[in-house]
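Cross-check.
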Amino acid sequence: MDSITLSDRNEYLVVGKTVYNDNTYYFLVDEKNNANIKFCLEKIETKTLVEIDDINLTRILVPLFSNSTNLEYLKANLQDN
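Predicted model, tokenized:
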């Protein structure tokens, strides 16, 4: 799993990546606080990630992320805590 640091200075694990409507989205989980999750849109032109706060879009993306093997890994680890 890759990790990245966002502008809030927290380090996040990339637990899912999907493409929807020709855009790439990431599912991120804070390494130190599993309850702190982010859904982000990749802005290719600026090479940045932008947090998504649109609940309707999030509802579409979550099932798409569920196909990721990384998400299954996350679920297993969260159950152990």
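The CA atoms of residues 25 and 41 lie 5 Å apart. Residues 69-80 form the longest helix (12 residues). Passed to J.P. for a second look.
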